[in-house]
Structures are given as structure tokens and as C-alpha cells.
Write a structure and sequence with these properties.
With 487 residues, this protein is of the alpha+beta class. Helix content is 68%, strand content 9%. The chain has twelve helices and seven strands. It starts with a helix and ends in a 17-residue tail after the last strand.
Length: 487
């Protein structure tokens, strides 16, 4: 049984039990209170009716002595009040008392009202003797009403005396039942809290203890921890099982990592030995500088310039590609590369540049322009005997920097052009000496966070034009060049 099921079953049952007993006690108290209120209402009606009869008699006496409008109004008000009480007596009459006493009392009230009305009518007809006779009869009836009203009160109290004792006994029973329910509810709540807390805190304590062992490096489980019968079937039991499985898997992974570290250590040692057998790049640059100075002393200035360009080219290619450069550095690198290529092609090629100097501070990934120009040499103008032209144009506007690299070589098919734009690998990858064109385009997308930055226009026999649109850089934007593989 899950923890949620336990809580959803036992807690609502406990609440329903408490609510049921509370409702029972409330209903019992409500019935007792209603019975008591009815009795008190009847007693008050008997008392009020007797007092109202006296008041009515006094108002009639005043009216008989002085039949003016004010006494007339007072008499009518008192009579209406008595009639209302008479109607209420019928509504609140007790069934046990609805016998001769209650009937006689009601008849006396009716007789009093009749004599009162007759005395009032006689005054209006100016027959004072008849009015006085009716008044005397009403006065006698009023005395009977007082006596019978007191008898009704005594009878009501006599009837309710045993009922009152029953009510007291019922109240005592309710008090005892309430105390028993309170004690039972408290004990059940304590037992339920202990049971649920043990089902939760027990597994949690074991998990905490196991976590402390793992934090100290004790991944091996004891025999007691391996016994699955100690675990509950709720969520915490499943969590404990998953935790133990995780520690077992972690132990296996650590063993595998140890073996992998041993292998990596062996590979690093072999790589170190291989690196120790390679030529130090600084030694290579120093050697190229010595060769350049020696060629200059021997009068071979072109050879010296070529060696310097080669040294600069190698130094630029061995830099950290994760750090961006300025567009000015790229242009200088293109110039060094072209010097080397011109030593090979001589007058067969020509480099034309149209550069907006204000755009040269634009940050750009290292080795962006040279691979594209190298691709133009390899696939565009290498087979041309004369008239080969490579043109570099850089301009700046409000929409960013526009770089255009074009040649008048052999061009390419539309299928090859689309494959380059889709960043598919080229077929002549092994001929390249630096980063592939695909990697250049991909690094530009990752660097600027925009996909469509490069456009290629080409036609067989009419050359190729590669256009790079660099978006304007936002203020405070951090620069990072994603690492890619060479080739």
C-alpha cells in the first residue's frame, strides 16, 4: 500500500468518525433545546395572556369612565394583543395538556373577549347599565383566567419534571460519550501518526544512513541492506530499492572508470612519447628565421620573403582557434598566403582587394577567409594558364559587414553549390591544408548565432563568388568561437 493510499483511507475515516459523533451530539442537544424552548414559550404565553387580560380590563375600565378617542385607541390595541396571544396558544398547546384545563382556559379567554366587546358596544349605544353588567362579568372571568393560568403553569412544570430529569440524564450521557469519543479519537490519532511516521521516517532514516556511507566511500552493501524483505512496498520502499541499485551501478561504473583511467594513462604516456619525438614549433620558427636571414645575406630576397611569409602562415595556423580575431588579421593572413601561392603560380594569378578600412575591426573566427581562397585555388584557378583573378571585397553598412570572395575560375555545378550550403563534406578534403569549407561555414553560424550567413554564386566556366554577411555586433556581447576539427 502506498503512502498516498494510506493517507487517503485512514485520515478521512478518522475525520468521518469524529464528524459523525459530533453531528450526533449536536442533533441530541438540538432536540433537547427545542423541547425546552417549546415549554418555556408556553409558560410565557400563559403568563403574558394573564397579564394582558389584566391590562385589557384596565383599558376597558378607563374607556367606560371616559369614552374619548385616546382611551378607545388604547383599548383596541390591548384587545388586539390579547387576540394574538389567544391564536398563539392554539399553536403552542401541549398535546398532553390539551384536555379540560387547556380547553377551559381558551374558552375563558373567548368569553372574556365577548364580554369585553359587549361592554364596549353598550357604551357606544349609550346604555351604561348594560355596559356595567358586561364589565362585571368580564372582571369575574379575568379572575378565573388568572387562577387557571397559574394552574396551567403548575401542570406544565409537573409534566416536564420527569422529562427534565431525563434531559439531565441524557446530557450526562452525552458528556460521557463526548469524553469517550475524545479519548478514542486522541488514541487513534496518536496510533495513526506513529504508524504513518514509522512507515515514512524508517525508510528515510535508512536512506540517510546509506547516503552517509556512500559519501564516505562505502559503496558495498551489508547483508542486512541486501535483504529486500525489510523494505516496504510504498514509494519510499521503491526509492530505497532504486537508491541501492544506484549505489551498485555506481560501484560498477567506478570500477570501469578505474580501468578506463589506466588505459588513458597508458595512452597519455604514449602520446607524450610521440610528442617528444616531434619538432618543437618554436624551433621550427627559429629555423625558418635563420633560413630567411641566410637567404637575404646571399641576395635571394624573394626567397627570404617567401620564408618569412611561410613562417607567419604557420604561426597564424597554430594559434588558438577558440579566440576570435579581427578582420584586419584575416586580411593580413590572406596576403601572406597569397605571397606563397604567387611564388608557385607567378604571373598566372592576381589578387585584387577593395576594402573598407572602417570594417577591419569587426571580430571574426580565425582562419575564415584563407580556407575559402585556398578552395578557389584548388577547384577554380589551378588549371588556368593565365588571367586568373581572385578578388576580395569588404564593405560596411548599417546592416553589418559584407565580405565577398570571387574568382574567375572553372566554377561549380548547382549540385555542388547546394551541397556546400548544406554543409556537406567535399570530395577533395585531403588536398586542403587547413580548415575545410564546411567547417568555416559552420563556425560562422555558431559564432554569430545566425544560420543563413553565406551565399554562393557559381556557374561552370564563369567562376565562383562567395558572399559572407556578418550581422552587426551588439554592445556587451561576449565572443566565443566554438572548437571544430581541422580538415
Amino acid at each position: 500500500m502506498t503512502i498516498r493510499t494510506k493517507l487517503l483511507i485512514f485520515i478521512p475515516l478518522l475525520v468521518l468518525l469524529v464528524n459523525f459523533v459530533t453531528f450526533f451530539l449536536f442533533q441530541s442537544g438540538k432536540l433537547v433545546q427545542q423541547s425546552y424552548n417549546q415549554m418555556m414559550d408556553r409558560l410565557l404565553l400563559y403568563k403574558q395572556s394573564s397579564q394582558t387580560v389584566e391590562g385589557n380590563l384596565g383599558a376597558l375600565h378607563n374607556y367606560l369612565l371616559n369614552p374619548d378617542d385616546s382611551n378607545n385607541e388604547l383599548f383596541k390595541q390591548s384587545r388586539n394583543k390579547l387576540m394574538e396571544l389567544r391564536a398563539l396558544l392554539d399553536d403552542h398547546s401541549n398535546a398532553s395538556l390539551r384536555s379540560s384545563a387547556v380547553t377551559s382556559y381558551n374558552h375563558m379567554l373567548d368569553s372574556f373577549l365577548e364580554q369585553e366587546q359587549a361592554a364596549f358596544a353598550a357604551v357606544t349605544e349609550e346604555t351604561s347599565r348594560a355596559s356595567l353588567a358586561h364589565y362585571e362579568k368580564a372582571e369575574k372571568i379575568a379572575s378565573f383566567i388568572r387562577e387557571n393560568g397559574q394552574q396551567l403553569v403548575d401542570m406544565e412544570l409537573g409534566i416536564y419534571q420527569p422529562i427534565y430529569k431525563q434531559i439531565q440524564a441524557e446530557n450526562e450521557r452525552m458528556y460521557l460519550l463526548g469524553a469517550a469519543v475524545f479519548i478514542t479519537n486522541t488514541l487513534m490519532s496518536i496510533l495513526l501518526a506513529i504508524w504513518i511516521s514509522r512507515s515514512i521516517t524508517g525508510p528515510v532514516s535508512r536512506l540517510v544512513s546509506r547516503a552517509r556511507q556512500i559519501s564516505k566511500g562505502q559503496l558495498h552493501q551489508s547483508d542486512r541492506q541486501n535483504r529486500s524483505s525489510d523494505r516496504s512496498s510504498d514509494e519510499l520502499g521503491l526509492l530505497s530499492g532504486a537508491f541501492e541499485q544506484m549505489s551498485s551501478d555506481l560501484l560498477v561504473l567506478i570500477e570501469k572508470d578505474k580501468e578506463s583511467l589506466k588505459k588513458d594513462k597508458l595512452v597519455k604516456e604514449l602520446e607524450l612519447q610521440a610528442l617528444q619525438s616531434q619538432i618543437n614549433p618554436h624551433f621550427l620558427f627559429n629555423t625558418l628565421n635563420v633560413l630567411s636571414k641566410l637567404a637575404l645575406l646571399e641576395g635571394a630576397e624573394k626567397t627570404s620573403d617567401l620564408i618569412v611569409s611561410m613562417s607567419n602562415l604557420l604561426r597564424y595556423n597554430l594559434r588558438n582557434l577558440e579566440q576570435p580575431v579581427t578582420l584586419k588579421d584575416e586580411v593580413e593572413h590572406v596576403k601572406e598566403y597569397f605571397i606563397i601561392q604567387q611564388a608557385r603560380f607567378r604571373d598566372r594569378i592576381r589578387l585584387e582587394m577593395e576594402i573598407d578600412q572602417s570594417a577591419l575591426q569587426q571580430p571574426i573566427p580565425a582562419l575564415t577567409l584563407q580556407p575559402i581562397i585556398e578552395n578557389a585555388f584548388l577547384h577554380g584557378i589551378e588549371s588556368m594558364e593565365q588571367g586568373a583573378v581572385i578578388r576580395l571585397e569588404i564593405s560596411q553598412s548599417t546592416t553589418g559587414v559584407r565580405i565577398s570572395l570571387s574568382d574567375n575560375g572553372s566554377g561549380m555545378t548547382d549540385e555542388v553549390r547546394k551541397s556546400l550550403l548544406r554543409l556537406e563534406s567535399g570530395s577533395d578534403k585531403k588536398k586542403s591544408t587547413g580548415l575545410g569549407t564546411k567547417n568555416v561555414f559552420k563556425r560562422l553560424q555558431l559564432f554569430y548565432g545566425v544560420n543563413e550567413l553565406v551565399d554562393i554564386e557559381s556557374e561552370l566556366g564563369k567562376g565562383t563568388k562567395v558572399t559572407i554577411r556578418i550581422p552587426p555586433r551588439k554592445e556587451g556581447e561576449r565572443i566565443h568561437v566554438p572548437t571544430v576539427d581541422r580538415g
